[in-house]
C-alpha cells in the first residue's frame, strides 16, 4: 500500500470506530471495537509505515495518529454516556420507595366553632357592623350592674358566676356572657353604634351533654335614633337566613333580661325535624339560641346616654351549637371539645 492508500484506510477505520461506538449499547461492545479497530486494524496499518517513501513517512505517521485519536475519542465519549445511563438505571432499580408506608402530611383546618365565629363576623361586617372584643376577666359593674342587675338582683343567680380572687370579694369575675361588651363599647364610642362582639364566656357548670364551663357567645348592639323592635326582628331574620339558609325560621318568645325591655327569647326552627318535633328540640319544634330585646333605658343612663334621644336593640346567643345544628349533627356538644380529629376533620 502506498502512502495515500494507508491514509485513506486509516480514515475508514476511524469512521468505522465512530459509527460502531454510536451504535454500541454496552461498554463490552466498545471493548470489542477497541480491540478490533484500534489495536487490530489501525495497528496493522501502522506496521506498513516502514514500506512508504521516506519523504511520506511524516505525513502518513501524522494521519495515522489523527485517525487513532478520532477512534479513541469516539469510544471514550460513548463510554461516558453508557456508564452514566447504566448508573441511572441502577439507581432507579435500587430506589427505596419510602412513600409506600407513609400516609402523607395532613393539613389541618380551623375548629368548627372558630369557622362559625369568623363566618358570623363576616355576615355582620356585610351588614355594616363593626367587630369589637371585650376582656374575659370582667368587673361586677360591666358584667352586672351597668346591665341593670343591681346587687342582690335575682337574675344574677341565673348566671352561675366564677369569681376571681382579685380586689374586693366578688368584684372581679370571668364574664358570664358577652353582654358586658355592650357597656365597654358604649363607654368608649358615641352612637350611632352597629357592632358585634364575639368571645369566650364562663359559668360555674360541670361539663355534660348540654353544659360547659367555657362556651362562646356573640353579642350584637345597635344604638341609633328611632330604632324599633321591627329593626331587631328584621336584622335577626336576615342574619339567620345567611347563617342557616332559607328553610329555617326565627322565633321570638316573650322573656326577661334586666338589660332589655321588652325582652325576647331567640329561637330557630329545628333543622332536624322541620318543626314537627323530635328529641333534639324536646318535641317543641324550636331550638333556643339566646336572647334579645330593646336596650333598657337604665343601660343608657348607666353610660350617660339620654334614653329620650337614643334607642337600640341587642341580642346575644351561643355559638357552639351552630356548627352542630347546621350540619344536622344530633349529638353532644362535648364532641366539639374532645379534640378527636376523626370527628373534627369532617367539618
Ligand atoms: N346575655 C344573655 C345570656 O347570656 C343573652 C342576651 C339576652 C343577650 C338578651 C342580649 C340580650 O344582648 O338582649 O343569657
Description:
The chain has a seven-stranded mixed beta sheet, sandwiched between helices. A three-stranded antiparallel beta sheet has the order 2-4-3. Strand 7 and strand 8 form a beta hairpin. The chain folds into two domains: 92 residues, no CATH class; 233 residues, BirA Bifunctional Protein, domain 2. The protein has 347 residues and is of the alpha+beta class. It is 42% helix and 19% strand. It is built from eleven helices and ten strands. The protein binds 3,4-dihydroxyphenylalanine. The site of 3,4-dihydroxyphenylalanine has 13 residues, from strand 8, strand 9 and strand 10.
Key features of this structure:
7-stranded mixed β-sheet, alpha+beta, 11 helices, BirA Bifunctional Protein, domain 2, 347 residues
Brief summary of the model shown:
By secondary structure, this protein is of the alpha+beta class.
Adjacency order of strands in the biggest sheet: 1-5-6-10-9-8-7
Coarse shape? rod-shaped
**What number of structural domains do the residues give?**
2
Strand-residue fraction? 15-25%
Q: Give the distance, in angstroms, between the N- and C-terminal Cα atoms.
A: 91 Å
What class would the helix/strand composition place it in? alpha+beta
CATH fold title of the largest domain: BirA Bifunctional Protein, domain 2
Radius of gyration: 44 Å
Can you write the helix and strand succession as a string? HHHHEEHEEHEEHEEEHEHHH
CATH class (first level) name of the largest domain: Alpha Beta
CATH superfamily of the largest domain: Bira Bifunctional Protein, Domain 2
The total strand number stands at 10
Unreliable parts: none
Architecture of the largest domain, CATH level 2?
A: 2-Layer Sandwich
> What oligomeric state is this?
single chain
DSSP summary: helix tally: 11
Biggest sheet descriptor: 7 strands, mixed
